[in-house]
Write a structure and sequence with these properties.
Elements lengths: L2 H8 L3 H15 L4 E7 L9 H14 L4 E6 L10 H6 L5 E4 L23 H10 L2 H10 L3 E8 L6 E3 L13 E3 L2 H9 L3 E3 L6 H7 L4 E2 L4 H7 L7 E4 L8 E7 H5 L3 H36 L3 E4 L2 H21 L1 H23 L1 H11 L2
Helix pairs in contact: 1-2, 3-11, 5-6, 6-13, 7-12, 9-11, 12-13, 13-14
Bound molecules: calcium ion (CA).
Length: 363
């Protein structure tokens, strides 16, 4: 019965009217739903942790407080790498991380974070939103009782921090380097020992010599972590993470239990957060890079074409092997690879074509 009909019928007797009065607050005051968001980032960490905060804020604001989201830094409610399980079992309703952290759950997760020599930030959004990526991601995460969202992107990352020069691929031999995901598999083939560590544990590991080298994100984030205090050389480009997607995974039952308008708010808040995070990195990376070089004396170096070519070949091997591991990985790879193929052509003419043109006059 709609409200008008309810009031009209209420006129039939005092008892009914009394019921209306008593029931009125329930009609007007919408139920507040409180969600917890666990994250894999140190609390308020620039770009990533603050990206999670922004997402929570958008949802809370757009819903007028009907759906409020409280953010927890890594270790506050659960350790960083237990976020996935925590949301899967409903200890929290949302989690913020990067899909390659969960490769132990399924190899296919890695395609939704970063693929070495894969898609850049715009192309990842294109693949997920318009190229069939979202449907595959949902199919994959549904196995864990989750709904997947792209909720941010770092843009292209940096190649990493080293205490020795990387002149040829053999310089990776014996190197213990923090590098998660498929990039880690690639450097393993080059003779390195890849290590996966959450953000909060990298600096001390590098400083103590527990690891020899690390990658993290890019200048803005790397400056905040102070890696320049523990390593001399800063290499580019980040071939291993050309446009890493930060994800928000939501407990599927909790998501599906929301009214349609709140689900729409969650959906669109994710997209807003994606663009916001990417534009923040785009804006802040260069100033941070200049500070690293000019103020902290960091030696900026480019990987040689030879190193990049060999990494590219190893990457192709690694990715194809992952695709052959299980049916889902194969399915995701097929879709991803087709998108990369079309991106290679359009990027050359579009973004890369323009970048080259601009640099002819503006140095
Ligand atoms: Ca990284």
């Amino acid at each position: 019965m709609d409200r008008r009909g309810f009031i009209k019928n209420a006129g039939v007797g005092a008892l009914a009217a009394g019921t209306i009065l008593a029931g009125a607050p329930a009609v007007h005051a919408a139920k507040t739903i409180r969600w917890k968001m666990v994250t894999t980032w140190p609390k308020n960490f620039p770009g990533l942790g603050t990206g999670a905060n922004n997402l929570a804020k958008y949802i809370t604001e757009m819903s007028g407080g009907r759906l409020t989201v409280k953010v927890y830094g890594a270790g506050e409610l659960v350790p960083a790498f237990e976020s996935f399980d925590a949301v899967s079992r409903g200890t929290a309703q949302m989690g913020h991380g990067a899909a390659y952290y969960w490769k132990g759950k399924s190899e296919a997760t890695q395609f939704f974070a970063a693929v070495p020599f894969g898609l850049n930030a715009d192309e990842m959004a294109g693949w997920i939103n318009h190229g069939g990526g979202q449907q595959l991601w949902d199919e994959l995460y549904a196995q864990f009782g989750l709904k997947a969202f792209a909720a941010g992107n770092t843009g292209v990352q940096m190649g990493g921090w080293f205490n020795k020069e990387i002149n040829t691929i053999s310089d990776y031999k014996g190197l213990k380097m923090r590098m998660p995901g498929l990039g880690g598999e690639v450097i393993k083939r080059a003779g390195a020992t890849p290590v996966s560590l959450p953000g909060g544990e990298i600096f001390t590991s590098l400083q103590s010599g527990a690891i020899d080298a690390t990658e993290w994100v890019g200048p803005y984030n790397d400056l905040a972590f102070g890696f320049y205090k523990a390593a001399k050389y800063y290499y580019w480009p980040g071939w291993h993470e050309p446009g890493t997607v930060l994800e928000c995974f939501v407990n599927k039952k909790a998501y599906e239990g929301l009214p349609a308008d709140l689900r729409a708010i969650v959906d669109h808040a994710m997209k807003a957060a994606y663009v916001d995070m990417l534009s923040e990195f785009t804006t802040k990376n260069n100033a941070a890079l200049m500070q690293l070089v000019d103020k902290h004396g960091v030696k900026l170096k480019r990987f040689s074409d030879d190193v990049l070519k060999k990494m590219g070949q190893l990457s192709q091997e690694v990715v194809e092997e992952v695709a052959a591991k299980d049916k889902m990985s194969g399915k995701v790879y097929k879709s991803f690879n087709a998108y990369r193929k079309q991106s290679l052509n359009w990027n050359r003419i579009g973004e890369a074509g323009y970048s080259l043109a601009r640099s002819l006059t503006f140095k």
